[in-house]
Amino acid sequence: MLRRIAFPVLLGIAGCAVLIALGTWQLRRLEWKDAILAQIEAKIAAEPVALPGAPDRARDIYLPVTVSGALGGEELHVLTSRKEEGPGYRVISVLTAEDRRVMVDLGFVPEAQKDASRMAGAVTVTGNLHWPDETDGWTPAPDAARGIWFARDVPAMVAALGTEQVLVVAREVTGADLGVTPWPIDTAGIPNDHLNYAITWFSLAAVWAAMAGLLAWRAVRSAQGGTV
Q1: 129 is in which domain, residue-wise?
Q2: Whether residue 150 sits in one domain with residue 73
Q3: Alpha-carbon distance 221 to 216, whole Å?
Q4: How many domains is the chain built from?
Q5: Does residue 20 belong to any structural domain of this protein?
Q6: What are 141-179's pLDDT values in tens digits?
Q7: How much is the pLDDT for 171?
Q8: The pTM is what?
Q9: Residues in contact with 123: Cβ distance below 8 Å, sequence separation at least 6, in sequence order
Q10: In a domain, 153, yes or no
């Protein structure tokens, strides 16, 4: 009898050990990701500083900054939607600050407000530096004729607008009423699925143990000459 049940028992132990190890690894990944998100949230909410002369993506992503200048009406529009507001656009505008031209993500406007005038002689934008990673092989090319984009592609937008490699995502704009709802950076869009993965692995371990137990029971019944 022992020989009959040895295989399902060993199979159950080995399979459960692997699956539990994978679940435990995902829990460790969850702790790591939570710590990273906490660091990002702290950086986003920090006291804003003046716009650096030469922002660096690795060093300055999410850096809170304040920059003042003029909006001349040069814009790109990124097709998007917001819950309870429906479809619309992110407004990416050129801000001229002394001898610098930088891009500012002013926020969201409904479809009907896409072509409204948003020129302003003097505004102050407080927000965070960002280099969004929103494009992949499925992202459509921009509709240049209508100025409609389908993702915030900073290098391509820089080439289209002739600005520095800088995008400030506004959380507040003062000095003019632009009719735009700021859509500031947060961590909601950063994937953190490790808890779901851990639950999946532990659930599979439970199923594996049950299947191994069933095999062992069938082996015992067979050895005893019972029906299976």
Answers
A1: 63-174
A2: yes
A3: 9
A4: 2
A5: yes
A6: 998 888 899 999 999 999 999 999 999 999 999 999 999
A7: 95
A8: 0.79
A9: 68, 69, 70, 71, 95, 173, 174, 175, 176, 178
A10: yes
